[in-house]
Specification:
about 280 residues, alpha+beta, Double-stranded beta-helix, seven-stranded mixed sheet, four-stranded antiparallel sheet, binds succinic acid
Length: about 280
């Protein structure tokens, strides 16, 4: 199957043209796509008219699918556990805020997601873009003494941190903490396929660096959050209906912008691919 790959920004991301994801992909195409994906970290396929099953089949070309047992029930598709339905309007009376701060999927578990695939199903007239930042670049551009320092540090990742869970009822918060107790992750991860070093921190998840004083921990983390999301490391995805996008969580962080009126809704479907073990329970 022939297709072309066109970079989307100078930092990361590429658009793949010429493939119809409603059709099965052959092994050679999947192997070639994986190479492009490892190179560009984010691959975008526009104009795809895919059913849920076809979306799942495409996702499974890249690895084992997660069944989202650690997610809030209302986010998981009622019959296809491999699918999250990410809605920004009210669901059962609760406004779901999902992914609206920088993060890498499931970094708060000891099996952080290798990849995620997102498909646009309903979009506001303007806004609702998603940003990705290149965490290889973020690591590579640190000064050598800072690299040596962060190479030796780990940080606590806690999913209940950050604005996505502000206003959660106490019972919901406690249930979430029970499902997802905080995890200690290295601040620098070696990508298992490319061998490259990438920063593995994010504003949503990281709460502290054990062994350091509060001021040391807060200062280092806030420097890393700011540095790792500099505009020159970022690709901004302006969604169109029919877009399907796969990203590598091992070397990127992402966030969804909630910059549209509450009268508008946005609905995405997502799969997550199981990654290699990383980190330990705190
Ligand atoms: C996510 O964080 O996985 C979802 C991002 C988005 O809705 O754009």
């Amino acid at each position: 199957m022939s297709y072309s790959v066109k970079p989307l920004s100078s930092a990361l991301g590429a658009e793949v043209e010429g493939l119809d994801l409603s059709q099965p992909l052959d092994d050679a195409t999947v192997a070639q796509l994986r190479k492009s994906w490892l190179e560009h970290q984010v691959l975008l396929f526009r104009g795809q008219d895919v059913t849920d099953d076809q979306f799942i089949r495409f996702s499974a070309c890249f690895g084992e699918l997660h069944n989202h047992q650690n997610y809030q029930e209302e986010l998981v598709h009622p019959t296809r556990k491999e699918l999250l339905v990410v809605k920004s309007h009210a669901v059962n009376g609760k406004v779901i805020r999902f992914g609206q701060e920088w993060h890498s999927d499931m970094s708060y578990t000891t099996r952080p997601a290798m990849a995620s695939v997102l498909g646009a199903r309903r979009l506001p007239p303007v806004g609702g873009d998603t940003l990705w930042s290149n965490m290889y670049m973020a690591y590579d551009t640190l000064a050598e003494p800072v690299k040596r320092m962060v190479d030796a540090l780990s940080a606590v990742h806690d999913v209940t941190n950050g604005s996505s869970h502000i206003g959660d009822r106490a019972d919901i918060r406690i249930a979430n903490m029970k499902r997802n107790p905080p995890v200690l992750q290295p601040i620098v991860r070696v990508h298992p396929e490319t061998g490259r070093r990438a920063l593995f921190v994010s504003e949503w998840m990281c709460t502290r660096i054990p062994g350091l004083s509060e001021i040391e921990s807060d200062s280092i983390l806030s420097m890393l959050f700011k540095h790792s999301t500099r505009s020159e490391f970022v690709y901004r995805q302006k969604w169109k209906l029919g877009d399907v996008l796969i990203w590598d969580n091992r070397c990127t962080v992402h966030m969804a912008l909630r910059d549209y009126g509450s009268e508008f809704s946005r609905e995405m479907i997502r799969t997550s691919l199981v990654g290699t073990p990383s980190g330990e329970l705190v």
